[in-house]
């Protein structure tokens, strides 16, 4: 099985899985999941054994009734032995009652085990997903992760819980029925034994076909599920662009591929049930012929033939049930393989074996000859970049889109690790700082910050779980944003909706700024925090930022250049390198890239067209 592969994307890994046969070793990895519920599983297996016992009482009782309850009458007809008939009727009723009772107990045990196993597996997946590095989520569609944690886990449940007892029951019924047939008459057993090799061969072929079919079906199901999740997440963009029809056609195409895979799988495996039915019917016909001849010779009784008919059903019936069991096995193991693909994925960023303490942070930040690329064979995003931010100072970073500004944030917070060089805080390489400690001291406010379902206070409390409502409200007032938040329909108790959809972009930004203030980090990073908001909201954000940045090291990435004029330093990033570094006035005096960008921004802000890129100072931007 593919494990811990960082080179391939998640999509490439799943496509590889869909083309290969299922790993037998992977199947045995499922068994540890049953360890916490082994008592329930053993109880369910014991119930299945008792159910098998009740099944074999019935043919024996039928044989007793025919051979001992219906005696030939010398005057013609049959003489009824009521005592035998009475006890046989009571025995049949008792076996059915026991079967009803045992089946109920078995369902309870299986259901209890299933709930616990699935719950534990979901928690294990959730914990692992949260532990993965950001790079994994950049490479993987959210729908694929959702499919593994939801539909794949649901598919796995019948295999884990119901599979072992049912498989044991199938084997027991076939073996015991064969023994009973042999006990009644070796001749009767020999008459039907010829179909066994054919059934076993058909079962082996069917098992191999089903495994490959369900791996392909599972992959196609994951694709249309992923598209559905992404559609829900990006519904505003789809509607704004009028892409509903195109998006629907994409979904139809994914569904068509899924349906075609499902139909091909069904066609390839649909022969098993009728084939086994033909073999069973043939075996019964042979048994009747042999039984009739034995009765004519007086070596077999009518009761034995009747009981044998029951036993032939019990003997060959479970072999037919293997059709359903192997379908469940193939479907479940395909889902298990995809789940273990997720669980075997290793984080790209890990804590070092030697962790240095970071109790108090002054806030000195330095990038030392940093090189970085997102893909091993991709282009360099950051190249030989060196930059130092003294504690308590404000550094603004500007530059063209896609030249590495936001990547610096990713490296500082260790969402990614540098390929060469180092990023340090107070002289300590961030790779030697525990990730939880690092992110506690480095606060980040992004352009598109995420709010979780709940109230505004619930979202603020994420930064300081022990804070009271009064403390959180006081923080909002300290930043001067209380006038906006208190005017919401329910004030601080207003529900923000999924991902903050009930609030405007500016309102979400204000909530995120308060959340960062409550967290009280020593280093603050603002990535386009004032973009895409109106002028009035921008002014509120600017006032809040001045308060928020007091006494902290601040790194501000901005396109609105008027918001960074007061920064201690301004770094111009181009092609992953620092090409200019100074304060606002000095950079204007140098009349370089920053000066050209600033003049173009001012003209655009006053309704004048931006200076064409052919302007010498901007031609290289």
From TrEMBL:
Protein name, per record: ABC transporter ATP-binding protein
Membrane topology label: Multi-pass membrane protein
Native organism: Aquirhabdus parva
Residue ranges constituting the ABC transporter domain according to the UniProt record: 365-600
Lineage: Bacteria, Pseudomonadati, Pseudomonadota, Gammaproteobacteria, Moraxellales
Keyword DNA damage: no
A single Gene Ontology CC term: plasma membrane
TM stretches of this protein: 40-60, 80-102, 187-206, 271-290, 297-319
Domain ABC transmembrane type-1 intervals: 43-331
SUPFAM superfamilies reported for this sequence: ABC transporter transmembrane region, P-loop containing nucleoside triphosphate hydrolases
A GO MF term: ATP hydrolysis activity
Subcellular location: Cell membrane
Keywords: ATP-binding, Cell membrane, Membrane, Nucleotide-binding, Transmembrane, Transmembrane helix, Transport
Superkingdom to which the source organism belongs: Bacteria
């Amino acid at each position: 099985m593919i494990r811990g592969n960082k080179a391939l994307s998640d999509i490439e890994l799943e496509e590889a899985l869909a083309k290969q046969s299922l790993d037998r070793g992977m199947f045995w990895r499922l068994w540890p999941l049953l360890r916490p519920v082994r008592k329930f599983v053993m109880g369910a297996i014991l119930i299945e054994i008792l159910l098998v016992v009740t099944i074999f009482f019935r043919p024996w009782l039928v044989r007793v009734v025919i051979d001992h309850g219906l005696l030939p009458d010398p005057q013609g007809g049959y003489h009824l032995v009521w005592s035998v008939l009475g006890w046989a009727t009571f025995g049949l009723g008792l076996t059915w009652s026991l079967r009803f009772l045992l089946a109920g107990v078995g369902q309870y045990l299986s259901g209890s085990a299933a709930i616990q196993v699935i719950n534990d597996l979901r928690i294990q997946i959730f914990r692992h997903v949260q532990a993965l590095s950001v790079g994994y989520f950049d490479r993987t569609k959210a729908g694929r992760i959702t499919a593994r944690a939801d539909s794949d886990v649901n598919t796995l449940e019948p295999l884990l819980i119901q599979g072992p007892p049912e498989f044991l029951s199938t084997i027991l019924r076939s073996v015991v029925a064969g023994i009973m047939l042999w006990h009644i008459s070796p001749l009767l057993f020999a008459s039907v034994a010829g179909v066994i090799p054919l059934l076993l061969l058909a079962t082996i072929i069917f098992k191999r076909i089903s495994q490959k079919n369900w791996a392909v079906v599972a992959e196609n199901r994951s694709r249309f599920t992923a598209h559905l999740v992404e559609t829900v997440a990006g519904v505003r963009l789809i509607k704004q662009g009028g892409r509903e029809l195109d998006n629907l056609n994409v979904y139809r195409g994914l569904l068509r591929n899924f349906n075609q895979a499902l139909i091909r799988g069904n066609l390839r495996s649909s022969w098993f049930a009728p084939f086994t039915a033909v073999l069973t019917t043939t075996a019964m016909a042979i048994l009747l012929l042999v039984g009739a001849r034995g009765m004519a010779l007086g070596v077999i009784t009518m009761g034995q033939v009747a009981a044998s008919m029951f036993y032939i059903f019990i003997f060959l019936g479970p072999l037919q049930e293997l059709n359903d069991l192997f379908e469940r096995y193939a479907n479940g193991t395909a889902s298990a393989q995809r789940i273990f693909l997720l669980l075997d994925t290793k984080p790209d960023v890990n804590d070092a074996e030697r962790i240095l303490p970071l109790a108090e942070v002054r806030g000195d930040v330095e990038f030392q000859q940093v090189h970085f690329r997102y893909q091993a064979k991709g282009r360099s995003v950051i190249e030989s970049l060196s930059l130092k931010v003294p504690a308590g100072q404000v550094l603004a970073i500007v530059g063209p889109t896609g030249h590495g500004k936001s990547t610096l944030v990713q490296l500082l917070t260790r969402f990614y690790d540098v390929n060469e060089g180092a990023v340090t805080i107070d002289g300590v390489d961030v790779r030697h700082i525990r990730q939880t400690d690092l992110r506690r001291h480095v606060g980040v406010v992004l352009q598109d910050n995420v709010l979780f379902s709940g109230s505004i206070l619930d979202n603020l409390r994420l930064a300081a779980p022990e804070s009271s409502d009064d403390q959180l409200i006081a923080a909002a007032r300290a930043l001067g944003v209380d006038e906006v938040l208190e005017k919401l329909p329910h004030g601080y108790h207003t529900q923000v909706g999924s991902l903050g959809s009930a609030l405007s972009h500016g309102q979400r930004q204000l909530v995120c700024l308060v959340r960062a203030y409550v967290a009280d980090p020593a280093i603050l990073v603002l990535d386009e925090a004032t973009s895409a908001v109106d002028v009035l909201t921008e002014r509120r954000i600017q006032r809040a930022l001045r308060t928020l940045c007091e006494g902290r090291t601040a790194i501000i990435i901005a396109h609105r250049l008027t918001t960074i004029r007061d920064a201690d330093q301004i770094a111009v990033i181009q092609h992953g390198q620092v090409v200019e570094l100074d304060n606002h006035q000095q950079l204007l005096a140098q009349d370089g890239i920053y000066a050209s960008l600033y003049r173009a921004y001012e003209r655009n802000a006053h309704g004048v067209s931006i200076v064409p890129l052919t302007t010498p100072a901007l031609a290289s931007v």
